[in-house]
Amino acid sequence: MSDTQDLRVAVLGVGVMGADHVDRINRRISGARVTVISDASPERAAQVGATARDAQLVADPFEAIAVEDVDAVLLATPSAVHAEQVLACLHAGKPVLCEKPLATDAEGALEIVRREAELGRRLVQVGFMRRFDHEHERLKSLIDTGDLGQPLMMHCAHRNPAVSPRCDSAAVITNSVVHEIDATRFLLGEEIMAITVLRPTPSSHAAEGLQDPQLVILETETGRMVDIEVFVNAGVGYEVRTEVVGERGSAMIGLDVGLVRRTEPGSWGGQITPGFRERFGQAYDSEVQRWVDAIHAGGRSGDCVDGPGSWDGYAAAAVCAAGIRSLETWDRIEVDMVPRSIIGRSGSAGAAPDQPE
Ligand SMILES: NC(=O)c1ccc[n+]([C@@H]2O[C@H](COP(=O)([O-])OP(=O)(O)OC[C@H]3O[C@@H](n4cnc5c(N)ncnc54)[C@H](O)[C@@H]3O)[C@@H](O)[C@H]2O)c1
Ligand SMILES: O[C@H]1[C@H](O)[C@@H](O)[C@H](O)[C@@H](O)[C@H]1O
């Protein structure tokens, strides 16, 4: 790849998210095109491949990563296989944008942080797309300029209309709460030290044995508290609300306040957002465009990340691991994280806890 050539991207896993990413790269992102598609389902690969003229289908995901004229990899495979596929990308020296979570356990994420640090280049970006959402960016800017005074608390709600019947109680944390964990680190700029997961009466719409909803309390290094209602079978629509309460005021995002209409006879209201693709479409586009631009800027030897990196993926995985433990024990659990200083320079440009080593 030269500066003027399109980045040749392999997309692995072309289900809901991967197919969207193929479409976004080919239609809306400049400086990149999808040249390889890989999916465990040959039918699905062929179906999505038919929408991407230039793309070659490669059945084995590790062969797809190794294809010589693939410059970068976008992973939208199931969360359980992210860690091994990211490690394969690092082994091949290729930049990777990995959908969240980076790994389903803290050890897997830490291994990635260590391997990237050994390479001496930042090649791993994690798909915490809320950092690219305009509302989140505005909220962060209000906090950073001091307009709210010192932030003290955050209140969050994360409601999905429904999830796959295969989703278990731990996956509610690793797949859904992981977004609030990253948003907390991003907005407040510090690490999370402890987590408590409470169990309200489960919804009758949740699958047998699934703890849904859950109430999660995060405690940060300086003692700020964040409460999160996560409810993944809430019906109705998609809602992600975040309110930051500071010493001089509060601010809330995610209120679905698009167009509000008054119509006869006597009705008033707006549209409910149906899902994450609609709510975060702009954020996914910005995330992928900035990733592509960062790889062009980094070239063959520089850093290829603009946004959350491997350290952010690890920090979130460590909090999730403590959350799963809290879910099992009903206790408040302190987060077990290695100190950042032992890792070296790899990690995130976007995350606040990015102190000089
Ligand atoms: N950032 C977000 O808001 C967001 C939204 C949805 C999903 N996600 C993440 O994206 C990932 C995919 O989620 P999804 O909803 O698209 O899932 P999905 O089930 O719709 O798609 C996954 C695809 O991967 C394929 N696959 C399975 N194992 C594979 C393997 N080992 N190698 C290659 N392909 C394989 C499957 O056949 C399927 O087509 C998950 O990690 C999820 O957490 C992120
Ligand atoms: O995988 C999805 C995705 O990450 C969405 O952004 C989130 O709202 C859902 O809860 C999760 O299941």
TrEMBL record:
Stretches assigned to the Gfo/Idh/MocA-like oxidoreductase N-terminal domain: 7-128
Main enzyme class: oxidoreductase
Reaction equation(s) it catalyzes: myo-inositol + NAD(+) = scyllo-inosose + NADH + H(+)
Keyword Oxidoreductase: yes
Pfam families in UniProt: GFO_IDH_MocA, GFO_IDH_MocA_C
InterPro entries: Gfo-Idh-MocA_inositol_DH, Gfo/Idh/MocA-like_OxRdtase_C, Gfo/Idh/MocA-like_OxRdtase_N, MI/DCI_dehydrogenase, NAD(P)-bd_dom_sf
Keyword Acyltransferase found: no
UniProt keyword list: NAD, Oxidoreductase
Catalytic activity, EC: 1.1.1.18
All residue ranges annotated as the Gfo/Idh/MocA-like oxidoreductase C-terminal domain in the record: 140-329
Transmembrane segments: none
Functional summary from the UniProt entry: Involved in the oxidation of myo-inositol (MI) to 2-keto-myo-inositol (2KMI or 2-inosose).
Assigned protein family: Belongs to the Gfo/Idh/MocA family.
Assembly: Homotetramer.
HAMAP family: IolG (MF_01671)
Official protein name in the record: Inositol 2-dehydrogenase
Organism in which the protein naturally occurs: Rhodococcus daqingensis
Originating gene: iolG
